[in-house]
Amino acid sequence: MKPFFLERAVVVSSVVLSSSSAFQLRQSFHRRHDNLASPSISGRILEAKKKVVEDGDGVDLSSKPSSMDPAKRAALDGVLNQIERSYGRGSIVKLGDAGNMVVESISTGALTLDAALGGGFPKGRVIEIYGPESSGKTTLALHAIAECQKAGGIAAFVDAEHALDPVYAAGLGVGVDDLLVSQPDSGEMALDIVDQLVRSSAVDVIVVDSVAALVPRAELEGDMSDSQIGLQARLMSKAMRKITGSLSLSQCTVIFLNQLRSKVGVIYGSPEVTSGGNALKFYASVRLDTRRKEILPDNKGIRVKVKVVKNKVAAPFKAVMLDIIFGTGIDSWGCTLDAALDLGIVERRGSWYAYQGNQLAQGRHNVVEYLKTNDLGESIKEDVRQALANYGQPVDLDDDGDVDMPDADIDLEISNSSEELITGFE
């Protein structure tokens, strides 16, 4: 049907157009007709699979000739060469030739949160952590810095709020002697420092505390009565445009801490909104909402609920509970036990917990204390990390052709109250 249509087009065009134009159109028709007669890509793959079954030898499909039109291939090679001459070698490549396509990550310090994020904070991306006051935002960021330093990386902390506590940071495992700290005078200075650190490709993690404290220079130099509308939003929008282009090349992770504000006159939906405009919401690959749920017994800490409201590298909308102990940070062994339960590494039989058929202890508190003092704790933690590392590997297909995924069961709790409902669709 298609060649017949094109043949009629040639006949009609030969009457209206000049003889040379009709000749070019006929040549185009013959090229397309030859392409229709050539074997398709799917046909080549089926033939290759058939040869594998018959001969029992592997076939390198990449060595097979392409069914692309030679004229189109020549045009593609020409434009690719032109782009590389204009912008440098490697400015455009095939995705399959780009190397490892799995996004690497940095641990958050809590294995349950790592499982919810698909491995941790992704490298080369923008992260936003927001929530009310005293909900664990800075603690999460400092734990990410500590994990980065344990792996031999370099971290920087842009303290726009001028409220960093070195003693508390050291208690969480941060190497304060090696931590780069900046207390900028204005928002422009803070974001310019972040931009230069990212472009240097020498820093692995940068924490900005916080977006609400990034005050534009015009607002600082003006009077208290001056109305400066949208200055901070424009500042953040420009910064995101400049920073994100360099992040993927430097593999630096930038974590922005943000505060909540209340919109006036909202009847339906949540009145809560983050400061700094909407640019950060769009550019962030991961957004975490932290909420303080309760105070732990003996006032030793708080229990925090962390919800993944946006995630571009794994499944979003998961939630985990974290115990933050005053002075030491996240209860890592409690998170290890919870993650092991979710991944099926540790089994719960009533009030007893078992690992590889061996009973550990009775009750969660006793199991956590047991893991702290027993070598099995390190074995369980290593099994959890190995299971999380497999999240980034290509998925397998079972006999039915369905995706075979790990039996991870991470609860997602959604509240309908206006106090806790934060939607992931901004």
TrEMBL record:
Keywords: ATP-binding, DNA recombination, DNA-binding, Nucleotide-binding. Belongs to the RecA family. One of its GO terms (biological process) is DNA repair. Residues 102-260, 265-331 form the RecA family profile domain. It comes from the Eukaryota. Coiled coil: none annotated. It comes from Nitzschia inconspicua. This is Recombinase A. HAMAP family: RecA. GO terms for molecular function: ATP binding; ATP-dependent DNA damage sensor activity; single-stranded DNA binding. PANTHER family: MITOCHONDRIAL DNA REPAIR PROTEIN RECA HOMOLOG-RELATED, RECA. Signal peptide: none annotated. The keyword Nucleotide-binding applies.
